[in-house]
Design a protein that fits this description.
four-stranded antiparallel beta sheet; 46% helix; alpha+beta; Alpha-Beta Plaits; 7 helices
Length: 183
C-alpha cells in the first residue's frame, strides 16, 4: 500500500494500531504519557483537531504546520520514544506499532466534520462506552473552558457553535444506538 504524502497546510486522519492487534496502552498512565509525547514532539509541527486513544489503536485528526519531512520525523520520534518506554515498562521487546502510521488526506470540510465525530464516537464503536465521559478523547476539551492544545475555536466554528457540535455528535450516537426490526 502506497502511503499518502503529507503536505503542509492540509488536514489528515492519522491512525495506527499495535502490531498484530496487541494493546499499545495498558493503563491510563500509558495514554497520558503518549499525549505528553505528542506535545513534546509535534506541538509546533501540527494542529490537533481531534484525538482518541483506545487500548490497541489511536486516531488523530490534524493539520500540518510544517513540511512533510519534519512532521514525518517528529512522528517517528514520538512512536520510537513511546515504544521504548512501553517496552521497558512491560518487559517486552520488538515493534509495538504496525510498520507505518496510516494517513488519509481530508479534501473538504464536510469530511473533516464527520471524521471529528467518528473519532469522538470511537469508544461507542468499540466498547459500547459513553463517548461523552471517555477520558482519552478530545471531546470533553471542546466543552471545557480549560486551556487546551486542541484547536477548539476552529473546530467549533466548523460546526457553527458549541450547541451544534454537541447536537451533531448526539445525532450520530443516536444512529448507532438504533435497533432495526424486520416485520
Amino acid at each position: 500500500m502506497k502511503l499518502e504524502v503529507l503536505e503542509k497546510d492540509c488536514y489528515y486522519h492519522i491512525y495506527n494500531r499495535g502490531i498484530n492487534g496487541i494493546n499499545i496502552f495498558e493503563s491510563d498512565d500509558n495514554k497520558i504519557y503518549f499525549l505528553k509525547q505528542i506535545t513534546k514532539y509535534l506541538s509546533d509541527k501540527i494542529s490537533v483537531f481531534a484525538y482518541c486513544l483506545m487500548n490497541n489503536h489511536f486516531h488523530l485528526v490534524i493539520r500540518l504546520n510544517y513540511e512533510e519531512k519534519e512532521v514525518t520525523q517528529a512522528f517517528s520520534n514520538l512512536f520510537n520514544s513511546y515504544a521504548k518506554a512501553f517496552n521497558k515498562q512491560t518487559n517486552r521487546t520488538g515493534s509495538l506499532f504496525e510498520k507505518h502510521f496510516k494517513r488519509i488526506k481530508l479534501n473538504d470540510e464536510n469530511y473533516l466534520r464527520h471524521l471529528i465525530i467518528y473519532v469522538h464516537l470511537n469508544p461507542k464503536h468499540h466498547f459500547d462506552l459513553d463517548f461523552k465521559d471517555f477520558r482519552f478523547s478530545s471531546y470533553r476539551a471542546f466543552l471545557s473552558d480549560k486551556e487546551t492544545k486542541i484547536e477548539r475555536e476552529e473546530v467549533l466554528n466548523l460546526f457553527s457553535d458549541i450547541e451544534n457540535f454537541i447536537f451533531c455528535h448526539n445525532q450520530k450516537n443516536d444512529f448507532l444506538n438504533e435497533t432495526y426490526t424486520f416485520e
